Amino acid sequence: MQNPSDGDRPPKPSIPRGSARLALPAPPAWLRRGPLREGAFTGRLHDARTATVVGRALGAAIAVSFVTGLISHYLQHPPGWAADRLPSRPSWGYRLTQGLHVATGIAAIPLVLAKLWTVYPRLFAWPPARSVGKALERLSIAVLVGTVLLQLLTGLLNTLQWYPWPWNFVPVHWALAWVAIGALLLHLAVKAPVIAEHWSRRSAGTVRLPAADGPDRRAFVLGVGAAVGAVTLTTVGQSFTPLKDFDLLAPRHPDHGPQGLPVNKTAAAAGITAARLADWRLRVAGPRPYELTLPELRALEQHTSLLPIACVEGWSKSAHWEGVRVRDLLDRAGAPPGARVRVVSLQQGGAYSVMEMGSSYARDPLTLLALALNGAPLSVDHGFPARIIAPNRPGVLQTKWVSRLEVLA
């Protein structure tokens, strides 16, 4: 006989065999307050359709930033096997890819904030995970959000050359990029059915979205697009010089600096003094080593190149450079055709005071040991008496205050 009191009890939910549901107790009443209370989020547009629309743009920005970041890293830190295979052309290649890298990274900031706005009510859903699979999914989302936010924040601060952390930015930024892209791919795989269902208005029609949300959703997406356009317009001029007049928020303006070109590290910051430059000579080490004074360098055949300086922080500008071809200096030292070159600066310390250049760059006719910039001798902040300028190279590898060239077998 059935116990009469059993009829007053709600039926127990049936759990299918083989499922890994988590038996979580109901939260105490005092906990179900604020964002955890029932019906806490009454706003609209926190739905899969809006999240998918914003996510498409965010995914594209992250993909472009990741690919261009790979190019930037390998041009700046080439593995040994690739040092002589990296292309020196097009001469503006690094300027384009690094400009895109920084521009899409900055554009991703309002996009990721908008994306988080569309989904944040789910962060307070109870229970936090209804199964082991859901728990793992939420953990992967936490990794994705954390790494993307950290990547964007540290990348933005790098454009300002402000490093309020104890670690080396470059290797951490490189490692985080792989964690972020891996977490993103995992998230896309898990959410693929939902994304496909809401990818377009036609596919989302099967979900019966409220028709009243349509105008508000369009307004929200237009607002996000306007924010992305605003931050792009006011920063991209640091590398895309036709828009330099709108360069209001970027830390560099392409026209601001000695000789009309920005400077990242001044001579004073590099420890370059008049006393150290007083007896300057270029020393070339090779099968036939030799030394040249500055007047002797200027007496050699001079060549000109129109090449950009493109820095990892995102700014770039083309300039007219004049000097001696590096390959002519190597030939004079008896260097074999496939030889690499080590370039040594007078700079005291620093990660790039010594730089190696593969043969593809060293033999390019555009690569100069530059002595003049825009028709005038180099200023000391631009590397007087001599600096390297080469096509398709990061600015940190365009070594200033060159004192020695070493032929490497």
Give an account of the 3D structure.
Mean pLDDT is 90; it is low at 1-21. It is built from 10 helices and 10 strands. The protein has 409 residues and is of the alpha+beta class. It is elongated, with a radius of gyration of 29 Å. The strands form 2 sheets. Strands 2-1-10-5-6 form a 5-stranded mixed sheet. α1 (48-76) runs antiparallel to α2 (93-119), α2 (93-119) packs across α3 (132-159) and α3 crosses α4. It has helices spanning 48-76, 93-119, 132-159, 169-197, 201-204, 213-233, 274-277, 294-299, 326-332, 359-362, and strands spanning 282-285, 290-292, 303-310, 316-325, 340-345, 354-357, 368-373, 376-377, 387-389, 402-408. The protein folds into 2 domains: 48-246; 259-408, Sulfite Oxidase, Chain A, domain 2. It is 39% helix and 13% strand.
